[in-house]
Write a sequence for this structure.
């Protein structure tokens, strides 16, 4: 399994295992509150923490390096066997919003194995 695949699997698992994980990372950098737009992530109606998006994975892997971000986008959209096999899923987004801003989550069958 590639490093990218391991990251995607782990990141998709985070809300179920440690719900405050992503929020605590952002809080370390912005102790007075705020958001890091390039970090991605989303809030939901029920979950109080930050939920991972494909943008979150892209930022963790590539930071602000445009070439690496493009490589990750290609990997994610075209080569991620976890996504292709449905082990992880990307929530659809409204028209005109970036595909990578969709929530990243585990398939229910995979989630039940944790």
């Amino acid at each position: 399994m590639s490093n990218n695949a391991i990251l995607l699997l782990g990141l998709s698992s985070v809300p179920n295992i440690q719900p405050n994980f992503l929020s605590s990372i952002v809080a370390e950098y912005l102790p007075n509150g705020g958001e890091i737009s390039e970090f991605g992530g989303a809030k939901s109606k029920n979950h109080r923490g930050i939920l991972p998006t494909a943008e979150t994975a892209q930022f963790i892997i590539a930071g602000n390096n445009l070439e690496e971000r493009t490589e990750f986008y290609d990997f994610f959209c075209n080569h991620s066997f976890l996504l292709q096999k449905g082990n992880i899923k990307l929530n659809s987004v409204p028209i005109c919003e970036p595909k990578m801003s969709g929530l990243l989550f585990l398939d229910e069958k995979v989630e039940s194995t944790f």
